[in-house]
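To whoever is on call:

I kicked off a structure prediction for a single chain this morning and the downstream step that reads the tokens threw a length-mismatch warning. I double-checked the sequence; it's 208 residues and nothing unusual in it as far as I can see. Pasting both halves so you can look.
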Amino acid sequence: MKTKTVLVFSVLIVVVVFGSFEYGRAKSKKDFVPPRIGIVDTSMIRENTKKRAAFEDMIRAENQRISDELRKISKEVEDLGDDLKTREYGSEDYMSFMQQIMNKQAKLQAQEKFYEQQLLMKTQRWTEDLYRKILIAVEKVAKDNDLDMVFERDQIELPAVNANELILSLKMHKLLYSSKRLDLTDEVLAELDSKKEPGESFGCFVKK
């Protein structure tokens, strides 16, 4: 009799525990709220932002200024070369003009390398600054839409230049599909372009 009572009591405990577990799992499923997600194409934003148009205006102005300066030095070298032809070979005047020419040529080469590095560094700084602003705009739009997460939608350019670039692109390409209703790109672009900050930094590309 005692054995039968213990057995019944054990079965009741199992039923109660299992029932509690199932209830808890069902309640968890019912209470679970999937995260609200957004998608942003930062490449599209970088290409279409009004800040890029202003940036490119700076590029043209800077390149024009540099070209004028280098052209001036090049003309000075050319003029000195013409004068050198009128001097007696080996004379003091000849040696003086030759030294000026070599100094000008060295200056021209040094200035070309300097401006190339300077402009590349400005471009990098501008790009980094723009990306930081994009992240701020993404955060603002995400909060306005009560989102939990925002993913990057990257684009793969096919055909690739070479096999290594293709492999790298495929490794970096994580988001394979997203519905257009999740896309926040236009909203983020509008938010980014609505912000005009004083003293906004610009970089420049080197144009050959």
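Update from on-call: the warning came from a stale cache, not from the record. Cleared it. Sanity check on the structure: The helical segments are 2-31, 42-48, 50-85, 92-144, 163-172, 185-193.
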